[in-house]
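Lab notebook: predicted structure, single chain.

Context: the supervisor wants predicted structures on file for every construct in the current expression panel, including those that have not yet been purified. This is the next one on the list. No modifications to the sequence; it matches the entry in the shared construct table.
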Amino acid sequence: MTGQQLTPKIFACRQSIKLAEKIAKQYGAELGNVKVTPFSDGEFQPAFEESVRGRRVFIIGSTNPPGDNLMEMLLMLDAAKRASARHITAVMPYFGWARQDRKDKPRVAIGAKMVANLLQTAGATRIMTMDLHADQIQGFFEKPVDHLYASTIFLPYIKSLNLDNLTIASPDMGGSKRAYAYSKYLESDVVICYKQRTKANVIGHMELIGNVEGKNVILADDMIDTGGTLAKAAEIMMERGAKSVRAICTHPILSGGAYEKIQNSKLTELIVSDTIPLKQEISKIKVVSCAPLFADVMDKVQNNTSISDQFLM
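Prediction complete. Output recorded below exactly as produced.
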């Protein structure tokens, strides 16, 4: 039997074990066995408990902080490489450290490029991820990158709401391309929030460009961290006469007091995917799983078929 005919192996990093189980179930396989041995100083050693020689290996793990999540992915990639896996795909639903995609001030690192180098050096022969913070991060890799879009899972949910006078909003200028893509598919209007930050995660000033009076507004963003931007945007839009304000955010980082901020905000609902596990459940957060999307694309990669039908926009 040749390597091409061997069934792939799917493994999970600990931070993404629940999502990986869903993906494996959708794929029609079981997760492979990985044993992680901890050391008393915090170091750990992952080990595959089954052969991967000559196989295509999918290693599923988001690399959101703390740094142990990224380190676990790197160690598992290296282990697969040294165990003679034929193809090694790093399936990273959330690509951490992506906000550092350029030098926006002197004497800073380009963290996303550094992470790309680490992944390739560790052994990744392919990268699979969703809604990168900046599309150009794909260019940091010399290996193939499957960049998926959460619109594939969010658009059916939005359409199921049957909202009239729908308007798509971008919470900042940088997200305008995403907002216009959603609006084109949904045939809706677009408004944009213009914000100025005093420092990271702190908004100094925000203005609304466009009319939201009498509209059901949906804010579209790739991630939500502290929740300050969305809460502020929802407040301004409701003051300007919006009927309702919802938000769709692919990656629910939700750090600091984000959960309380969202629950107390003017948002009707926050729709997120499960790229990052929620730390707590609140009534305003709705989770739409990305597992079927990743399972389908993994199957297409395994069978060397096109994945272009997964791009709704």
